[in-house]
Amino acid sequence: MFFKIVNFIPNDCLENIFQIDYNNLYKNGKRVIFIDLDNTLIPYDQIYINDKIEVLFEEIRSYGLEIVIISNNKKSRIEAFLNGYNIPFVYKATKPLNRGFKKALNIYSDITRKEVIVIGDQIITDVLGAKRMGIDVILVKPIKKNTEKWYTKVLRYFEKKALNKIKKYDITIYSNIISVIGEHN
Question: For 77-122, what is each residue's pLDDT tens digit?
């Protein structure tokens, strides 16, 4: 079911993408990372990939992991970010709906959902979408909330509602999420 509370709970919650132990992900059977773009890799007001992200991508690949950018944003935004960097992507993914996740899975058709991990900054799009597809997910703190588009701010309203339900469901899980992403307001 779409609105089961467990579908809003990430498998892990970390401050940012640089705190993730990618080697450990590989050792635990992950082979492909589906990673969100806006406020996960870069803030909305940044356009291009930077050296720090390029180094991270090379590190991730050195462990044997593949990367797919999966974003609700438009194709031109992702292409500008990649600036010729060779990483497959899914644009207008319509997360949390299945369409974009299925497209991303088709890029590496020889993998199972258990071999994929999603990394994103939103409970409503990234966590809910991944969980509904049976894919593990790591929630990271949004890089820069004050630059978010109006539609993301609407989703943050629903995220707040989801967090309130998580708080009633399990205060420990709620506390762990809030300790990383901060109070929802």
Answer: 999 999 988 999 999 999 999 999 999 999 998 999 999 999 999 8
Which three-class secondary structure state does DSSP give residue 181?
A: helix
Structural contact between residues 147 and 17, judged by C-beta atoms closer than 8 angstroms: no
Which phi and psi angles does 35 have, rounded to 5°? -120, 135
Encoded amino acid at 32, one letter: V
- Quote the pLDDT of residue 185: 47
Enter the pTM of the model: 0.91
Before 96, cis peptide (omega within 30)? yes
Query: How many other C-beta atoms lie within 10 A of the C-beta of residue 55?
Result: 11
Domains, the chain, ranges and CATH?
A: 5-181 (3.40.50.1000)
C-alpha closest to that of 131 among 116, 143, 111, 151: 116
Q: Please calculate the CA angle 26-9-41 and round it to the nearest 5 degrees.
A: 55
